[in-house]
Write a structure and sequence with these properties.
heterodimer; A: alpha/beta; six-stranded mixed beta sheet; about 25% strand; B: mainly alpha; MetI-like fold; 2 strands; about 0% strand; globular
Amino acid sequence: MAKKLVIEHLNAWFGAVQAIKDITIDIEENGVTAVIGPSGCGKTTFVRCLNRIHEVVDSARVSGRVMLDGIDIYSKTSDPVLVRRRIGMVFQKPNPFPTMSIFENVAAGLKLNGIKKKDRIADTVEQSLKNAALWDEVKDKLFKPATTLSGGQQQRLCIARTIAIEPEIVLMDEPASALDPISTARIEELIQQIKERYTIVIVTHNMQQAARVSDYTGFFLLGELIEFNRTSDIFTNPIDKRTEDYITGRFG
Amino acid sequence: MKLATGDRTIRFLSTVFASMILLLIAVIVYELFKGSELSIGRFGLKFLVTTTWDPVNEVFGALPFIFGTIVSSVIALIIALPISIGIAVFLSELAPQAIRPSVSLMIELLAAIPSIIYGLWGLFVMVPFLQMYVEPVLSRYFGSIPLFGGVPIGVGMLAGGIILSIMIIPTIASISRDIFNTVPMLYKEAGFALGMTRWEVISKIVFPHSRSGLTGAVMLGFGRALGETMAVTMVIGNAPSISASLFAPSYTIASVIANEFTEATTKLYVSSLIELALILFAISMVFNAVARLLVSRERIVQ
């Protein structure tokens, strides 16, 4: 498999506080990479550096390199807006735009990319909602406010919105942590279905989830990457003592 | 549960003070009605639609003042709105965190400048500037439009509108900034993650999210413009006329009351001025009530 993202010596700060320290990791194309670790270990900050959304917060700072297909997204000539169109993101809390309808939410990114033809937008919206396993539930109320959906539906809507613009990578920051078990299962199923076409990086505090959905797993602790390996190896045969302690539930 | 004596005393006192506000408003309304009885009896609804204001013959009509009040406030709003929104966007979305408090403070200080100072500045600085540079140019190039027709004399509707706009900018800007600040980061980040530029996040997420709150901010500013007296009186020209030209002198309700109350010698004259006050009170109340309703609804939604 090809390396989609090559991350080298990545550091990130909030003001004077360093959230992640010297992370070096490769993300395989069309794989699912899980990032696990206890709260406050920097896993969310790490994925937020991968689409340059970390810097939206005032006082946030990044150093190091993130190579997307060989080109550093932090280079001076790189435009964060274009980076984010290639690297989509699904957040912890479902955040469909509350002022827009279900349809408009999915169409929002398309319009930004200059797609104006109505039938093409409608086709893409339908396809994206189908891919997000939401179409059957919303096809009769596409023009209702997105906020009328349940939490799990809203999160799938956010996934549909993200994949509608055909990003190459989808970052997911604990996408199921605010959802009930049934919605969680649906999101995990969905990840399995869409991973053929996207490279996925998923942050989770749920180790079973990481074991179920991912091909590779990285374990973070106090801002450092402790261990990174195939998921099967991490969970059956961890090399570092701290990884073993964490996955066997001794802390975290 | 029985409250301690101290608690009961405090509750009693604060209830009394709070009720005094309601009482005060009731008394004001009552006095305004009572004071304008004579004028209402004499002119009836015609008072609202006639244009003659003739103290010598005791014929009074309020239309030029209602016109002057509303039009000068509308002009103020047209000028102040884009500037205020720009300031609010800068303060809530664009300015570096470090300078936000000081700029915000300065804007709020603008609201604290006594209106007589705005009036003096308007009369001695702004009016001559309008008369010599702005109005002649407007009149030369757009003179065929009635709005910019007439003699550029400086004082008049345009000067009144501009001075009012300066006075309501702090109100609209600081409320809009508060409203923009209530838009959750969650939604802005969703926009950024979709590849929106900063401007797209502002226009597609922050603005739609703030719509009703902004309407409220605008109406509070408008309410302030309606009642503003001193500065407007000094620059609007004080002539009860209705003209299509922005350069023509005009008159507002607040100005005419301030100017003429001391020289109102007959009962009917006084009563007519009080009826004007009643009209202004009604207009301001309606605008403020609607505005506050909209602002509070926005805050509840958050």
